[in-house]
Amino acid sequence: MSSLTSAVRDLQRDLENKTNDLSKLQKDIAKNHQVRKKYTVQLGENELVLKELDLLNEDANVYKLIGPVLVKQDLAEANSNVRKRIEYISAELKRLDATVQDLEEKQNSKKDAILKLQQRIQSIQTTKGKA
């Protein structure tokens, strides 16, 4: 009887640890989604800037805001900078997507493990109740 009680205690401790791990994974996923949202907004803004730059004539004046000052910038340089920014943001989004997918797979396996532990605890307690 006491071995069943200690087995249940061990399983409950294991269940608690796995639940804490699941909670951490869910927080990481939420944080990742926030960062992804920020990058998505930045990507949209930069694509809009690129479209605006493409509409300009080659002799048009382009200014870049650096702190409180507008600094004149070459159109080709501005175009290049925006394209590089878009490349970087797109790469970050791909990396974040892969990370989220990995975290979600880990989350699903934790959920499965927790469910199996809960079922084992229930079956032990049912067996103990009948004894």
UniProtKB/TrEMBL annotation:
Return the SUPFAM superfamilies for the record. Prefoldin (SSF46579)
The answer, when asked if Repeat is one of the entry's keywords, is no
Name the UniProt key words of this record, in alphabetical order: Chaperone, Coiled coil
Superkingdom in the source lineage? Eukaryota
Q: From the UniProt record, list the coiled-coil ranges.
A: 1-28, 86-120
InterPro entries of this UniProt entry?
A: PFD_beta-like, Prefoldin
Q: Which Pfam families match?
A: Prefoldin_2
Family named by the database record = Belongs to the prefoldin subunit beta family.
* Protein name per UniProt: Prefoldin subunit 6
Q: Which organism is it from?
A: Stylosanthes scabra
Instruction: Please name the taxonomic classification of the source.
Output: Eukaryota, Viridiplantae, Streptophyta, Embryophyta, Tracheophyta
What gene, per UniProt, encodes this protein? PFD6_2
